[in-house]
Amino acid sequence: MPQTFREARWYRSMLYVPGHKLEWMLKAPKYGADALMFDLEDSVELSQKTGARKAVAAAIKELCTERFGRFVRANGWRTGYLLDDLNAVVIAGLDGVAVAKTEDPEEIAALDLVLTDLERSRGLPVGRIEICPYPESAVGRYQLYQLCMASQRVKRAGGACGPTPGGDMARSLGLQFNDLADEGMCFGADSVVQARAAGIIHVEGAMTARLDDLELVRRIGERSKRMGASWASAIHPSHIPIINEIYSPSQDEINEARDVVSILAEATSRGEGAVRHKSTMLDYALVRTAMDVLKRAQEVGIDIGDIPNVELPPL
Fold first, then answer.
1. Which of 65, 133, 167, 294 is most buried as measured by Cβ atoms within 10 A of its Cβ?
2. 110 and 78 assigned to the same domain
3. Where does a domain end: 246, 271, 288?
């Protein structure tokens, strides 16, 4: 049976913004991230949770017509805060909910049910709000595939290049490594396999907690992209332009993809299914890859010109 991939809007970058700082959230769009993640979890002290929910709801309402995505990182199940978080932020303009410290697929299934009920009661399109599982333990990472399969709302996941050094996941796994050490790569590769096996094509790359090392941001991003990532998060606005550049197709990639599609289109018009190009044998698999590049370029607003149609056989 052919695999079905879960389509969703393509984001290159997602900027975290503390949920208790309304002014920060309202000015965050100027930094150019494709999506914003308003944080109600770790960046908000316990006594500020109630005020933060109101601030996040106000930000979503104020920014609801903007083109970028609006996500909220909610507190996890068993904290006693999640239902209050959802009741405050599930409103028109919300694009997704990220669940902190997810471990059990039942948590995702339960969140799906709650979101469905809130959408129906509030006249929102049912099923539109995404769920982003964020496993932060060995158990959660081990079950990433099951977390993704627990709801069709899950369209983004991953962790290419492995966990953030010093974070909850690294501590749970007992890892001692730096941002570019090879030790984390096997965990990142495993996450990519699990996410893609679940039909997730929007795979998140690694991020760094080091704010001022922009060269490190670039190295981590380029490495994550090579390992299958298609986007990344950031906790500082200065990281966003670099992330957007890395996860946008380069002009060379676009030109090569156009050539591949055009050459095979000519070949198929002659009844041929494969043709030589620059010492490489082009076939339908390479055309699918080239078309993915062109689609990604269009998603981020790059003009790719006229592309000939190639009728592809079913997978």
1. 133
2. yes
3. 246
Alpha-carbon span 208 to 302, nearest angstrom: 28
Same domain, 133 and 267: no
CATH number for 55 = 3.20.20.60
**E strand spans, 101-255:** 130-134, 156-158, 202-204, 232-234
Q: Which pLDDT does position 272 carry in this prediction?
A: 72
Burial class (CB in 10 A: 0-12, 13-18, 19+), 310: buried
Please, which contacts does 260-263 make with residues 24 or more away whose CB atoms are closer than 8 Å?
260/286, 260/287, 260/289, 260/290, 261/287, 261/290, 261/291, 261/294, 261/307, 261/308, 261/310, 262/307, 262/308
Is 153 domain-assigned? yes
Same domain for 262 and 241? no
Contact present, 74 and 83 (Cβ < 8 Å)? no
Both tokens of 137, joined, read 């333990």
279: Cα separation from own chain's centroid: 35
The DSSP symbol for 73 reads: E
Same domain, 162 and 231: yes
Do 276 and 190 fall within a single domain?
A: no
SS3 132: strand
Give the position of tokens 């690294």: 170
Whether the per-residue pLDDT at 271 is higher than 80: the answer is no
For residue 278, give its domain range. 251-299
Share of the chain above pLDDT 90, in %: 63
Q: And the tokens for 255?
A: 């030109």
Burial 276-297 (b: 16+ CB within 10 A, else e): ebeeeebebebbeebbebbebb
Mark 127-145 as b/e (b = at least 16 C-beta within 10 Å). Answer: eebbbbbbbbbeebbebbb
pTM of the entire predicted model:
0.88
Take residue 25 and report the two structure tokens written for it: 């959230």
Q: How many domains does the chain have?
A: 2
Say if residue 25 is in the same domain as residue 121.
yes
Read off the pLDDT of residues 15-47 as tens digits, 9 standing for 90 and up. 999 999 999 999 999 999 999 999 999 899 999
